Amino acid sequence: MLTCPLDFRYGRDVMKAVFDEENWLFKLLQVEAALAHAHAEVGNIPQADADNIANAVANKTVKLERVKEIEKEIRHDLMSVVKALAEQSGESGKYVHLGATSYDTEDTARALQFKEAIHYIKEGLQKLKVVLAELAEKHKGTVMLGRTHGQAAVPITFGLKIAVYALEIHRHMERLDEMEKRVYVGKMSGATGTGAAFGPRALEIQQAVMNKLGLGFEEATTQIVGRDTYAEFIAWCANVASSLDKFATEVRNLQRNEIGEVAEAFDVEKFVGSSTMAQKKNPETSENICGLARIVRGFIVPTYENIPLWHERDLTNSSAERFIIPHVCILTDDILVKMIDVFSNLFVDEKRMLQNIERTRGQIMSESVMIALANKGVDRQEAHEEIRKLAMTAQQKSVDLKEMLNTSEMVKSNLSYEELDKALDPMNYIGSSVQIVENTLNRIGD
User: Fold this and answer.
1) What is 17-95's CATH topology?
2) What CA–CA distance (Å, rounded) separates 156 from 50?
């Protein structure tokens, strides 16, 4: 019986496969094979025995069903893997897991798992950045209302809005690139981090194992890799999820009937927006992104609580991490893919954007007129107060701002009709929006 929505509703199969039982078992076995080779490399065990152990792993002779049978009997997950591998390694089985503790194998296998999962997440980030860059380029001159506090502000371009998002994704990619060296680390240093059971060449063994697996290692550990690195990665995922939440929230708001400037793709021939309201076209993918982002952020607290363990470690982190790591990675990947779909197929209503500007009846150009007056030598503060009063009166009388401006001696004595019309034209007041978009796209590259 399936109970977790990841099993039947959320997540891509390719990412869920990273965290399934078979893949986890294979990664544990890869670590054990690398350990055997490291022992052979320093002369602790015969090379033939290391090869036998590695062949048992490569040929996938260790079966998950057998591991579970052993675990049911001995009630230790990693030792069940060790025993199952030893069974398939013949006489060489006596060298399996030599000198290691459980979390030498598990934390190192987790680093391999992180590496595989992050590969897919990085692909998603790159695709999203490209989609956003293309959208920003296309609409770098598409004028729309800027909004602050939910109220109409000065004009911007839709391309600038999207360039902000593209740059945010680029920063996440930079953070991940910088962080990888701390996340892709394992350990092979024994029960309390001293390496005593590995003998005098313990550090060489650790180095050899990680070289074989393509990982780094922490120079000093307890029984486990420091959970500050896990917290850094999970927090990074939550940061990404929060950005996607932000983008999706904007899509949802701009799709509101009273705004109507963008909309998610909707197949009117097939899609159903509501079980009762037949007219509905809801931003369901964006809403789904926002909801799942909350779940990703929700794992922040237990992740940080896994850092302070007793002495050289206790087991309180283990059960929590079995939930945290797969859920966070799968959901982060899931909402990334959905965000790519939203922006790849986004409907942008440029006509509606202009209509919404016109509905402000010139109010959003108050700053432009004030600046025009200041450029003529009028005291900035006096100009601001004059325009503020005229704008408030225009709102109260439900008339265009221009009508009230034409009653102002300050305005009439300093601005010609042509200069006033220019100051009231939203197309003339997007500042450096186009250049900012171009500069941003040049910075973030392909």
Assistant:
1) Fumarase C; Chain B, domain 1 (1.10.275)
2) 65
Residue 273's pLDDT is what?
A: 64
- Cα separation, 70 vs 360, in Å, equals 72
> Do the Cβ atoms of 56 and 62 come closer than 8 Å?
yes
Side-chain half-sphere CA neighbours of 337 within 13 A: 14
* Known catalytic membership, residue 311: no
- Closest-CA residue to 132 (of 160, 157, 174, 156): 160
Strand partners of residue 348: 262
H/E element holding 185? strand 185-186
Q: How far apart are CA 49 and CA 92, in angstroms?
A: 5
Q: Measured between alpha carbons, how far is residue 324 from residues 27, 78, 268, 397 in Å?
A: 19, 19, 38, 57
CATH top-level class of 102-355: mainly alpha
Residue 151 has pLDDT above 60, yes or no: yes
Instruction: Report the pLDDT value the prediction gives residue 280, as an integer from 0 to 100.
Output: 58
Whole-number average pLDDT of the chain: 96
Q: Is 274 a catalytic residue?
A: yes
CA-to-CA distance for 235 and 332, rounded, in angstroms?
11
What's the pLDDT band for 317 if we cut at 50, 70, 90?
very high
- Of 274, 319, 413, 432, which residue is the catalytic one? 274
Residues in a beta bridge with 145: 155
**Whether 179 contacts 186, CB under 8 Å:** no
Break the chain into its structural domains and give their ranges.
Answer: 17-95, 102-355
**Which one is catalytic: 76, 92, 97, 149?**
149
Q: What digits encode the pLDDT tens for the residues 262-292?
A: 999 876 566 666 555 656 578 999 999 999 9
